[in-house]
Amino acid sequence: MKTTPFKNQNTLKLPGLARVQYFRSSHSGLSQNWQVSIDDIHARNWNLDFKNPKGGEVEEEMSSKELVERILGFEGEIRDIIVSL
């Protein structure tokens, strides 16, 4: 029994592959995206908990007292605006 020889084709024809390729091409330039090398993952014992190196905004942590003071300050500003109207 003779089998059909394997033909090497450069294009993959998998279901849904076009959607994956479209997603990757349309989202590749976004500032939130980044890549991690397999060596970095291996060095961290396969832990995938990486922080985004592109950063973005850093959230400021405040104590309860600071937070209440800030809210009261905003309320004062709002009250002044309402009075001026």
Would you write up a description of this structure?
The radius of gyration is 27 Å and the shape is elongated. Helix content is 45%, strand content 0%. It has 85 residues and is an all-alpha fold.
The DSSP helix count reads 3
Strand percentage: under 5%
Structural class: mainly alpha
Q: What separation lies between the terminal Cα atoms?
A: 92 Å
Q: What's the main sheet like? A: none
Shape: elongated
Mean pLDDT: 77
Number of strands: 0
In short:
The protein is an all-alpha fold. It has helices spanning 17-27, 38-43, 64-84.
Write the layout of secondary structure elements.
Layout: H1 17-27, H2 38-43, H3 64-84
